[in-house]
Amino acid sequence: MKIYMVGIGGIGMSALAQLYASEGNYVSGSDRETSPITELLEKKGISVALVQKAENVPADVELVVYSDAVWEDNPERMRAKELGMRQISYFEALGEVTKGRFTIAVTGTHGKTTTTALVAKILKDAGKNPTAIVGSIVSEFGSNFLEGSPELFVVEACEYKDHVLKLSPNILVLTNAEWDHTDWFPTLEAEQEMFGKAAAALPADGAFVANPNDANIMSIAKHANCRVVDYTKEVVPELQLVGEFNKMNARAAVAAARAAFPDISDTMIYHSVSSFQGTWRRFEIKGTTKEGALVIDDYAHHPTAIRETLKAAREKFLDKKLIVAFHPHLYSRTRDLMEEFAHAFMDADEVIIAPIYAAREEPIAGVTAHALAGKISAAGVSARGANSLSEVETFLKAESQKLKAGGLIITMGAGDIYKVADALVSGTHVL
């Protein structure tokens, strides 16, 4: 089959592209700019156009898959419509390729990627040969895709726009539940209702892996008509990853692996978990600046994830001054969780806020990097807003010169802030 993917550089889309290619399909696609992901695809022989235009779409394409970040008026989607091509979204496509196959899906507000990667690694190390689609590049796999058996899938499932409901998993892992994606879920209760539907859809012989005693999950777990597995009861070994939150992710992964394959030995599980090296953009140590400041990049973009990540950083690097460059993701999330964001940086010594990464949204009046910086400062942590990533880079380089080896710089957020981390370590410029 000839498949064209609009927004192929997305973390899920790119993994799906690799899956399609591994099945013998001809796959190509487009994105707006080059990235480590598009470079990975090119190395695997998947052609990526970096300008989206109608003529990119071959006339003989049989299926067009589009990212949810791509609107209907995209020229490539319009071309596909004119030619009568079948179009489906990423999660619709993921639902199709996993339908009828034993699937472990991992969802939740935080920790999806690490948990998914860990489940896949445990099963791989145990000889179960899983196929996995992960929301980041996994160190051990060298990719966000692991090719394995077509009958066993481990996939990351996002809650945004009820995407997890497009899947039909045998085992569903819910890492946790907090109000997020505020442009879609008007309240936490709405998000809980959606998770409840996902739990209710599990087969009778399936499993719902969660923390059923968590106040936000109790009502969700009641919808499961299958066994509920309490992952908090699992014991995990010392991890290479930092933070109590990663221990919880590891417990969830171990519980899911045991639920699927009770024959996997404790020895195998502990070895697999303890040797896990992590994933791209999850507390990833990038290196040092030429002055000696340590640079770490992290994907955290929700207040809880920020707070817990900085707490872990402070515990690990007690002797260093902690400078955080945060790239807010979405105007709606920044507006609706403004007070939570304001108090999420208490373990930082200084914070600089990059301009809000708009993604799919239009600006909201009064919701700016400077407004968030003001809130953080009022909460007791020195913070400033920036007008560009270049300004963030300039500030951090100046801090590196002052702090030298006594400095720890963390770039944080779901947008392009990782480019600043790369620039700091390489000595180049972000733009």
UniProtKB/TrEMBL annotation:
Residues 2-99 form the Mur ligase N-terminal catalytic domain. GO terms for molecular function: ATP binding; UDP-N-acetylmuramate-L-alanine ligase activity. Pathway: Cell wall biogenesis; peptidoglycan biosynthesis. The keyword Acetylation does not apply. Keywords: ATP-binding, Cell cycle, Cell division, Cell shape, Cell wall biogenesis/degradation, Cytoplasm, Ligase, Nucleotide-binding, Peptidoglycan synthesis. InterPro entries: Mur-like_cat_sf (IPR036565), Mur_ligase_C (IPR004101), Mur_ligase_C_dom_sf (IPR036615), Mur_ligase_cen (IPR013221), Mur_ligase_N (IPR000713), MurCDEF_pg_biosynth (IPR050061), UDP-N-AcMur_Ala_ligase_MurC (IPR005758). SUPFAM superfamilies: MurCD N-terminal domain, MurD-like peptide ligases, catalytic domain, MurD-like peptide ligases, peptide-binding domain. It is an enzyme of class 6 (ligase). HAMAP family: MurC (MF_00046). Belongs to the MurCDEF family. This is UDP-N-acetylmuramate--L-alanine ligase. It comes from Candidatus Kaiserbacteria bacterium RIFCSPHIGHO2_01_FULL_48_10. The gene is murC.
